[in-house]
Amino acid sequence: MLEAIYPGSFDPVTYGHLDIIDRALHLFDRLIVAVAERGPKESFFNVEERVAMLKEVLADRPKIVVSHFDGLLADYAIRERIRFVIRGLRAVSDFDFELQMALTNSKLAPGLDTVFLMTKETHLYLSSSTVKEIAKLGGDVSEFVPPLVGERLKEGFKKEI
Ligand code: ADP
Known about the structure:
By secondary structure, this protein is of the alpha/beta class. It is built from 6 helices and 5 strands. The protein has helices spanning 15-27, 47-57, 73-80, 92-108, 128-136, 147-160, and strands spanning 3-8, 30-36, 64-69, 84-89, 113-118.
């Protein structure tokens, strides 16, 4: 059985992530969507909230497991015996960082390969940060995230004020 892991902050999950997930499902028998508990930036939603949103949004898709991990992705992949990592690429600006990460991960976990999927054109400028910025300013995010995520964003920013 061919398995892959799709790691990220998913703070929150967007249609860009979902597009990558659906396309990865054409390539792999099982996909672990893994929420990084601690990322380089502080997250808006805590890890439980991010996992819960992913689970709800992905509930109707088979072959998916939503989980979370703390620490190094390479260690997690070794523990789970996963050989492939999925990452999405939007613009050239993503490339440098992703190349560094892919090379570092294969050094830390020999045999671990990163599979890159190009973003769909319509999602080229879509990122979780942009979505949060729009929601914070009271804008409509329905084009970018599933309805339940839009609701959670609204609730989250209401609490903040
Ligand atoms: P980061 O690790 O930068 O916080 P995320 O956790 O939001 O990124 O996303 C995880 C993965 O999903 C990354 O590989 C990222 O490039 C990819 N991704 C995010 N948004 C999109 C999008 N709109 N189209 C394609 N890939 C995306």
